[in-house]
């Protein structure tokens, strides 16, 4: 289905109802810089507005409920203060001429009792603890065994996503992206390493995809499908997620998503770390034949690789994570094929302006 095109990263593109100036997307990135109450701030607004020359910005994951909270300092989308905080961000990005989608997040078992209401256990499809450690307010601690959701509870979790989607609308976003990647709740339902349920949400691939499809339906009911995206990471191993047959699982899920006519599907390829941890990189191109809509490719792209993916028709847009974090004017730098700032990994998660809003632009800017 891939078709050669004349387009490249700098060609305008239609995404849902929006004509985007270029095909360079800022990938969602958790930066753990929300204020007390998990509320976005003016500093967050500045950071996103600095990056408004992206064809589209996708925000960091934003938890749809207290239950979906998994890391200190991440912004929520379930209180009126959080909605007001996000409004600062959407206003700033729109004033700078950008488009911005909110990423809707529920971390599931990637949490800890100290982050949950009343110190309860995090929830998941099955009571299987991921290997590794979780970040808490008192440092890194081993993951606990989560509580398996009762079948009767699942519609309520779907409702958390619907409410998050409504709140995002109120906060002035242009759309939402459902976080179905990286071993968080939706991915936990998808992959059999985390889902051993025996009800309608476990067992067969069709059953394991049910939660994803129900959440998608709920979110589309709020926004209309063409302003909804979804991110999946078929090759990812981060957060101890694995499946016995990821190619079959994700081919099914992606095929099923066609029927919604979504704004886009965002696919992350394996990272170098995933491959080191035994993951098999399934190229985005392998999934292209299963998806008829707009596809955003992600994972280790640069200008050359991005242009090639678009020209070959393997992707319609390309998202950039680390490069966008370190280069607020990434589209201009890619266009000029000029030097890029190097990212400072020590300031990725948490902190202040340092490593956040102080990466230099090629040319001076008024966004401070
Ligand atoms: C600091 C940081 C935080 C991230 N947080 C998220 C997140 O909240 N949601 C998400 O879907 N991906 C998250 N990612 C993954 C990126 O969206 C992207 O998939 C990944 O960085 C690979 O793209 P790249 O090679 O262009 O950086 C994060 C990545 C980084 C570096």
Automatic annotation (TrEMBL):
Checking SUPFAM superfamilies in the record gives: FMN-linked oxidoreductases
- Extract the InterPro entries matched here: Aldolase_TIM (IPR013785), OxRdtase_FMN_N (IPR001155), Oye-like (IPR045247)
Question: Record's CDD domains?
Answer: OYE_like_FMN
Q: Where is the NADH:flavin oxidoreductase/NADH oxidase N-terminal domain?
A: 8-339
**Recorded superkingdom:** Bacteria
Q: Which PANTHER family match?
A: NADH OXIDOREDUCTASE-RELATED (PTHR22893), OXIDOREDUCTASE (PTHR22893:SF98)
Protein name in the entry? Alkene reductase
Origin species, per record, is Nostoc parmelioides FACHB-3921
Q: Which lineage?
A: Bacteria, Bacillati, Cyanobacteriota, Cyanophyceae, Nostocales
């Amino acid at each position: 289905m891939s078709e050669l095109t004349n387009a490249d990263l700098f060609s305008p593109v239609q995404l849902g109802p929006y004509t985007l100036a270029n095909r360079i997307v800022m990938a969602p990135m958790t930066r753990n810089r929300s204020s007390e109450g998990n509320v976005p701030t003016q500093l967050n607004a500045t950071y996103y507005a600095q990056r408004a020359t992206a064809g589209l910005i996708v925000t960091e994951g934003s938890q749809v409920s207290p239950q979906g909270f998994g890391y200190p300092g991440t912004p929520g989308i379930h209180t009126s203060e959080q909605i007001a905080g996000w409004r600062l961000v959407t206003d700033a990005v729109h004033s700078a001429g950008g488009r911005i989608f909110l990423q809707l997040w529920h971390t599931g078992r990637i949490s800890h009792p100290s982050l949950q209401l009343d110190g309860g256990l995090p929830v998941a499809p099955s009571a299987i603890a991921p290997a590794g450690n979780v970040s808490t307010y008192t440092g890194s601690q081993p993951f606990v065994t989560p509580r398996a959701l009762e079948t009767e509870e699942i519609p309520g979790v779907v409702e958390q996503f619907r409410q998050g989607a409504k709140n995002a609308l109120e906060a002035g976003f242009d759309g939402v992206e459902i976080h179905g990647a990286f071993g968080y709740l939706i991915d936990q339902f998808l992959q059999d390493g985390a889902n051993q349920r025996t009800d309608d949400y476990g067992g067969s691939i069709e059953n394991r995809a049910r939660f994803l499809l129900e959440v998608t339906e709920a979110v589309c009911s709020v926004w209309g499908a063409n302003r909804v995206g979804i991110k999946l990471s078929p090759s990812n191993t981060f957060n101890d997620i694995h499946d016995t047959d990821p190619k079959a699982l994700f081919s099914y899920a992606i095929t099923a998503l066609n029927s919604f006519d979504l704004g886009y599907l965002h696919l992350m390829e394996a990272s170098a770390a995933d491959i080191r941890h035994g993951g098999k990189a399934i190229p985005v191109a392998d999934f292209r034949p299963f998806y008829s809509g707009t596809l955003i490719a992600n994972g280790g792209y640069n200008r050359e690789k991005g242009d090639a993916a678009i020209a070959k028709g393997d992707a319609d847009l390309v998202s950039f994570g680390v490069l966008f974090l370190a280069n607020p004017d990434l589209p201009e730098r890619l266009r000029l094929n000029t030097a890029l700032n190097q990212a400072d990994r020590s300031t990725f998660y948490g902190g202040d302006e340092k490593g956040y809003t102080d990466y230099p632009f090629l040319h001076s800017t008024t966004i401070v």
